[in-house]
């Protein structure tokens, strides 16, 4: 019988089977919660039913609360109540877990009186990644099953726990076989037969483990000082020695405090951004083949791209001009694959290497489905390669360039088949970084674009659609923020302070440390390329050029902004002083907040223009690029999420005030000014 839109119950003599069916991941939305309460009521009204089992249809048991309900008015019944009702049921209820039982799903399971899992099942309480704590008894019931030490680690890291570990930790009581519905039937019968023991989790005792809680707090303060919810998870686990109802009431208060933070909103925006980017105009178009990939250029990028393809089970032909380059490429791939084996990402290295061919003969590329050019970043070089591809590539092959800045429209003109040409901009190291910009040029056909997305998906990349402009979405924003950082540096903020301020705010790495890592010559080459078109009124900081000229290119030469030991490079400091003296700049101090505000505002300015020009189709695409490729703090949700959080009108005021010192750099994008007038948001445009 149907108890709600998504929950049904089968009465089979002295047992009852409760089924949740809410695709795609059986999230515990309002109809699931209503149905479960109705099931408990039904059991209470049918005392002749002596055991029940709860299971879910489809690919997984409940993967959590329904995230789409967050931030909206709460709908009765709440999940904590539902879990309590399950636990209070006089009829024992066994839960059958399959797939990924996460968050509210595991809390439902822990509210039941026993848990059995099908092979391959995983569990976890990942709420901390969404800026909250488990809010339906998870922080109170998990310690009752596992002890506080295990629970505090699992809840503050939010990691997925594999079946074997969940069994040994006490979260799961045993294994089940068969389909979830049959497993449920067997489990309910096992309860009746006395073969499966049931008990209420909330009735179990917990021993306080202050050392484990202190250790967790110390780790979080060190590694995630800018985040709110991890420490609150520890506070909640600490309450688990209280009687269950009292503990859950106190957990609820902490949950609500976390829920109301901007960090929660940012983290949930990031969760949806990761998935929203796949919803592109080309999504429904059948792609061409993506099995055999040709990579042109065996340098760092080419080797990384080849590695990513091999790790995804694809066949790769890698070419370069001479044997020495090929040998270096092979060595790099070999080392990459060793790393993947070590990290558990690859089982059989020989199998991967067996799918790799390397050659200096470009004719070997005639059979490949997709060609990815990763040669030297120079237009003439790329045009020569693409002109040659007309002769070599099979008809229908997709011709992709991995350029980071160059105009894909111009590259496409070098071939007689511009419709097959696109950009696939990977990030170094290409087999590790999750972002890939899929650059759709003027002539790129929808089928070609769809094939680029299909390949990126096989490589398990987060693929974001970008139009053509200098630097596409990510590097164009990077250039703008780097300028903002350089201006602050010249005006008096030590670059070490700029890096430290941004890192303390949650950025993975400050801009100067990023430059040292990537090599200062990359931006130098770009500045030289753009020198001819640079408007005279543009403010220009010379010091990075001086460093490059002196051979300080960053880590690869031993020094850049910083020395090897991490202290500022004296050559950088003296170049800066000389430039200030020459330009008559009296250095002033900047607070850390001001640094973060200017950096973020510059980023928002450029991000707004990129959306305004439809280089990115939606604001959330820009956010995804920054989040997944540029170390933007996840809890801030991305630059355009931040624009909404700050508000268009205050942003316009802020930019106008910065413009008093530099009218050329600080200009309010039209779209922001319009939004300030109309009280609009970027979220409305997603
Ligand atoms: N709510 C709503 N939609 C969800 C969802 C959720 N919890 N989880 C996934 N989806 C959607 C997702 O947006 C996508 O939609 C589709 O399902 C498939 O997801 C009280 C408050 C389960 C491991 O954090 O980790 O419980 O894009 O593409 O790779 O304490 O989704 O197709 O339209 O990711 O197979 C805690 C989040 C919630 C789990 C499946 N739970 N989800 O991965 O598919 S908070 C989570 C995941 C909570 C309580 C608290 C993964 C997955 P669309 P997918 P997948």
Automatic annotation (TrEMBL):
GO terms for biological process: fatty acid beta-oxidation. GO terms for molecular function: (3S)-3-hydroxyacyl-CoA dehydrogenase (NAD+) activity; enoyl-CoA hydratase activity; isomerase activity; NAD+ binding. It catalyses: a (3S)-3-hydroxyacyl-CoA + NAD(+) = a 3-oxoacyl-CoA + NADH + H(+). Keywords: Fatty acid metabolism, Isomerase, Lipid degradation, Lipid metabolism, Lyase, Multifunctional enzyme, NAD, Oxidoreductase, Peroxisome. Residues 292-465 form the 3-hydroxyacyl-CoA dehydrogenase NAD binding domain. SUPFAM superfamilies: 6-phosphogluconate dehydrogenase C-terminal domain-like (SSF48179), ClpP/crotonase (SSF52096), NAD(P)-binding Rossmann-fold domains (SSF51735). The keyword Oxidoreductase applies. The keyword Lyase applies. InterPro entries: 3-OHacyl-CoA_DH_NAD-bd, 3HC_DH_C, 6-PGluconate_DH-like_C_sf, ClpP/crotonase-like_dom_sf, Enoyl-CoA_hydra/iso, NAD(P)-bd_dom_sf. Residues 471-562 form the 3-hydroxyacyl-CoA dehydrogenase C-terminal domain. Its main location: other. It is found in: Peroxisome. PANTHER family: 3-HYDROXYACYL-COA DEHYROGENASE (PTHR23309). This is Enoyl-CoA hydratase/isomerase family protein. It comes from Thetidibacter halocola. The lineage of its organism: Bacteria, Pseudomonadati, Pseudomonadota, Alphaproteobacteria, Rhodobacterales.
